[in-house]
Design a protein that fits this description.
mainly alpha; globular; 13 helices; two-stranded antiparallel ribbon; ABC transporter involved in vitamin B12 uptake, BtuC
Amino acid sequence: MNDFWIVVTGILVAVNCGLLGVFLILRGAAMTGDALSHAVLPGIAAAYLLSGSRHSAVMLIGAALTGWLAAYLIEWLKKKIRLQNDASIGITFTFLFATGVILISAFSGNIDLDLDCVLYGDIAYVPLERIYAGSGDLGPAPVWLLGGNLVPVAALVTFGYRGLLVTTFDPGFARGIGIASGGWHYLLMGAVSLTVVLSFSAVGAILVTAFLTVPPATAYLISKRLVPMIWWTVLFGVISAVGGFIAALRLDTAISASMAVVSGALFAAVFILLRLSKLRKQADRSRLNFSRK
């Protein structure tokens, strides 16, 4: 049963991250998720200092607020200072992460946090974090949190499809027809921030970053149309989660790392197959032209 919950958690993270990662890839902000996963450190430290509690809800609130702050700073630096997106991400990520390190160093006597667990959670421990209702076991808490997060994420992609589509491909046109591109950006970044915070404490920052970027990038190799790209992303994410778990059992390795590796292997396989298909079509075309001569 524990294996089942681990696989379900991996699939939920893959789908949550993949749905949002499609738009990050298309907007040229693929590494925003990685930046947010580290930028939340000062929020976690501040939440503990102010509350004196390590309750997951307190940590979640602190991390989410800092994540939204990071998303705002990245956009502000890009729009107001006119920095490139990667530079904005780098400045925000390093500044907030370093601030978190300073907070923990300065108040090390008052902060009792396992940063390896906070930043690099292990999916293998997911079945241990249970939710109980009276004497009934409802299952792992991360599954409920990620499943609950999937509802607003899916609603955003479904009902906000038109706004996200227009503001992603042509922000200027969106402004011209009265669609607030800035509002949609912050809505998307808020969803990314919350998803990253909920995911990385359960499965680790590496897997979150992998699922935000690799399945959408793999889908982009196959289709440049948004709807097919979304469905391909979900499919590749699910395959990565299930395949990575099986590989981890067979090789006796870290589960999160195995899922990330399988995700990368799928990208490489799709790239090679498409490349071979393209070369084959070129060869057939050349033979046809030669026979006509």
